Structure formats: C-alpha cells, structure tokens
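Translate structure to sequence.
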C-alpha cells in the first residue's frame, strides 16, 4: 500500500470519527482524554440525557440524510428512544428540524440556488411525468393495510393466550425445556419440511 492510499484511509477514518470524538466529551462538558472539565454542562452527565442525545442524534442524521424532519423523529421514536417522554420527543424534533434547515441552507448557498427546499443528501430521483394513480391502487393499498392490521392483532391475541397457558401449566424446568424444544422442532419442520422422526 502506497503512502497516498494510507493517508486517504487515515483521513477517511478521521473524518468519520472526529465528530464522535469531539461530541463525546464536549456535549457533556467533560473529556478525560483531552483533560477538559467544566461544570457548565454537568446536568447532562446522567443516563437520561445520554439516551436523549443518542435519540436526537439519530433523528438529526435521518432528517439530514433523507430530507424528512418528521421521518427522523419517527425513526428516533421507533429505534432510538427506550423510555418515551415529551422532553425527549421535543429534543428530537428540534435536532431534526435544525439539521434539516442547516443542511439545506448550506446546500443552497454552495449550489448557488438560494433555496432551502432541495431535500436531503440521498435522492431517489425525480419523475419527468406526473404519476397517475388509479382508484384500484388506493383500494388495494387500503385492503392490504386492513388485512395486515387484523393479522397483527390476531397474532398478538394468540401470543398472549399462549403465554398465559404456558405460565399456568408449564411450571417445572423439564416441561419448560421440553416445550421450548417442541416449538423449535415444529418451527424447523414447518420451514424445512424435514421429518425429524427416527
């Protein structure tokens, strides 16, 4: 490997981790590796704020990447927030809107358009002709959504009943292991269509 390639790799790794290195310490006003400590941001040094910062960061990243501030908030709600509260929701919303606005402002200034409605970094292309949707497409989407919702509700009800039955009747260790093995063998048999009987 030549020196130029090594420099590119080091530069690439540094660009990716520079934000994490700086943000890891400075967001809480504390960094042991840089010997930097202040009491200015000491209230952010608990686990609640750390989880909220991670969720807000994921919301901001999705918002900037795909040009969808509310999509970033919904992503954070689904994947990033372990304990939901309104403070975290508003932090995610503020971070998401801020990243969307600042990215599109800088993007508009760099491209010389002056527009802030140009979307995110990832683009799936544009359509030259307007899309024509038919009523049958909308009806099909509604039917698929209703059927999926009913199947999901049925699965949750079945799983709840099965769990109650297992909690009531499967009490010894032997029965717990046996029922678990029976479920796994049944699942494998359904998937592979293989007969495990000897």
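Result:
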């Amino acid at each position: 490997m030549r020196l130029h390639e090594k420099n590119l790799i080091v530069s690439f790794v540094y660009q990716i981790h520079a934000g994490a290195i700086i943000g890891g310490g400075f967001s809480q006003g504390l960094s042991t590796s840089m010997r930097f400590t202040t009491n200015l941001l000491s209230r952010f040094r608990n686990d609640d704020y750390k989880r909220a910062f991670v969720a807000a960061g994921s919301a901001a990243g999705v918002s900037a990447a795909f040009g969808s501030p509310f999509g970033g908030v919904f992503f954070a709600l689904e994947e990033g927030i372990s304990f939901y509260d309104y403070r975290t929701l508003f932090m995610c919303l503020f971070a998401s809107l801020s990243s969307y606005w600042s990215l599109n402002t800088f993007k508009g200034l760099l491209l010389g358009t002056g527009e802030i409605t140009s979307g995110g970094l990832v683009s799936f292309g544009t359509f030259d002709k307007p899309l024509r949707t038919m009523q049958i497409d909308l009806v099909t989407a509604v039917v698929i959504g209703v059927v999926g919702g009913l199947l999901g509700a049925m699965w949750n009800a079945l799983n709840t009943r099965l769990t109650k039955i297992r909690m009531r009747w499967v009490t010894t260790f032997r029965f717990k292991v046996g029922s678990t093995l029976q479920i796994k063998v049944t699942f494998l048999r359904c998937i592979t269509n293989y007969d495990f009987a000897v």
